[in-house]
Amino acid sequence: xxxxxxxxxxxxKKENRPALISYTVCGDNTKEKSLQILNxxxxxxxxxxxxxxxxxxxxxxxxxxxxxxxxxxxxxxxNDIFKLVKRFKKTKPSKPMILMxxxxxxxxxxxxxxxxxxxxxxxxGLIVVDLSFPDNKNFAKLxxxxxICFVQxxxxxxxxKRMKEIIKSSHEMIYMISSISTTGSALKYSIKRxxxxxxxxxxxxxxxxxxxxxxxxxxxxxxxxSADGLVVGSAICREITxxxxxxxxxxTNVSKLVRKLKNKII
Amino acid sequence: MIKLKKxxxxxxQHNKFGFYANKFGGNYCAETMRxxxxxLSKLFEKLRKDRKFLKKRDHYFKNYLGGETPFFxxxxxxxxxxxxxxxxxxxxxxxxxxxxxYHATVNxxxxxxxxxxxxxxxxxxxxxxxxLAMAAKKMNLKCxxxxxxxxxxxxxxxxxxxxxxxxxxxxxxSGSKTLVxxxxxxxxxxxxxCDNTHLAVGSAIGCNIFLKICAWSxxxxxxxxxxxxIKEFGEIPKLxxxxxxxxxxxxxxxxxEFIDYDKKHVELIGVEAKYAAPLSTNAKVAVLHGxxxxxLTNKEGQIAETHSLSAGLDYPGSSPLxxxxxDSGRARYTNASDKEALxxxxxxxxxxxxxxxxxxxxxxxxxxxxAPKLKKSDVLVVNNCGKGYKDKKIYIEQLGxxxx
Lengths: 266, 404
Fold this sequence. Notes:
The complex is a heterodimer.
Chain A: H1 4-14, E1 19-25, H2 31-41, E2 47-51, H3 62-73, H4 78-91, E3 97-101, H5 103-109, H6 111-121, E4 125-128, H7 137-145, E5 149-150, E6 152-154, H8 160-168, E7 173-177, H9 191-204, E8 209-213, E9 229-232, H10 234-245, H11 250-265
Parallel strand pairs in A: 1-2, 1-9, 2-3, 3-4, 4-5, 6-7, 7-8, 8-9
Helix pairs in contact in A: 2-4, 2-11, 3-10, 4-6, 10-11
Chain B: E1 19-20, E2 24-25, H1 31-47, H2 51-64, E3 71-73, H3 75-81, E4 85-89, H4 100-114, E5 118-123, H5 127-138, E6 142-148, H6 149-154, H7 156-164, E7 168-172, H8 179-193, E8 197-200, H9 208-218, H10 220-233, E9 239-244, H11 249-255, E10 266-273, E11 285-288, E12 291-294, H12 320-327, E13 331-336, H13 338-351, H14 358-370, E14 379-383, H15 392-399
Parallel strand pairs in B: 4-14, 5-6, 5-8, 6-7, 9-10, 9-14, 10-13
Antiparallel strand pairs in B: 1-2, 3-4, 11-12
Helix pairs in contact in B: 4-5, 4-9, 5-7, 9-11, 10-11, 13-14
């Protein structure tokens, strides 16, 4: 499955739409429920992203903090996450799975052991929020060696010089942070400005798949459909929170939301 | 064993990635923060060599913070314990009541130089928050202070001070509702506002540049102490410098000028709170708030909750610079319980005129343990780094009184 991330983008491109990428927290609100949610929404997804919950998430807004908190309350551990990924990949082997987390969780587990476990479980890509360039060079190499895509991030504050270096050392997918913010706040910049930033990245290396994330909701998603891919995270986490609060089934509600998101970009 | 470099300031002993001894520190932050912290690093490196800026800093330290803080012998306590001579570097006499005054003032000055109009900081005991609020007011900056809701209620006098000085106090109700959560929330605020806001991290923690600015600012304490020691003794006598450790900003300032001395000559002793003691309980290295450091975690790597009566010490991590000092063997670390700190306060205030806050009361506790075992020729100096009035309510609850 070496190129399953690339394949996902190819398929979306063929259908003339951006790839849809979900972000949910593994274990939210229970281990089984989070797998059920992912299984249910995966038919509308091109790539699935699962967060590794950490109790000190300095780049996340309230929604993802809540999801992480619920998952941790229910006792999720890294080894559980690997098991759940394995189960997911067993039924959906061609659906790319990206794990996203903070470096402390990986550091504590051991870089090499973590990557080996990811490979065994069938993880296709990794995003480590607080392991930025150039500190991530060795880790990225280790990922590549194990056929795992290490996803670099580019922010609105990233200079063009730095951007070029990041892109040069990047693998097949790059994550562009839409505006200066934590996850889940409203888009701070105009769509025009976001697309302009996106085009700067694409121009440097058109062959890289660039996805946009942070602040993407049902309202904003269609305006950004010219991107290679779009990540929706906090909006989904918020829907899980709402469902639990209203004693509704998060699986059905989240599936409906993801279907709506998909309809806005086809 | 890690070796420290002689004649190189401790804060500058890092590699190009911001790591000390390839192990502590670094810049574990979101990509969004990279450019702002790089800009800040450049600005700081320029300013610390800029004579005009240094003059300005010294002017503020002298005229706004009140100049040199006193250094004196505690005759009664020395007599009572019957061992080493006990001296007090009374940093709490500064305008602003704690060493955080240096750090807050320098941050406000840097913010001014950077052209940013907003400044944001975290606080536990409220000492940094209060001093940042004061400095921001003085320099016409808009100030936001992030503080855990548990700390807001236990350090109410400082909160009132911050608000009166015109700062916005942002209550943080997540997690343990203490300093660790306040720092996280403040960093989130910075990630979202780094284009117009200067981040003043409240201790010698965080990405490389933040801990450098902090330790550089508080080092004023040891510059003064060195002069005061020579004036008093004609030389640097055989010393033990005892300091409380939360994040570790006051100790770094208290010790800075003495790092190059042999530890048999000048011994450095850090005292943590018993249930927030990563350095003295063999905690693992973990990544917290942007840096690798000794930090309390659970087996899975989640950051552990801590417990201390003292809000300023209620923090699971420690400065990467203290990791460096510990692993190089230059400093040693121990801890004191709430009870021991309270007992120290009781004894000190009975015999002497100083009123330490709960934080330095931990250092006094170690001093009281140590002094009787030492000779008269030994000199113990304790950094009395915070004034006790902010803990008046807690002292009354715990001891039944607060001395006049």
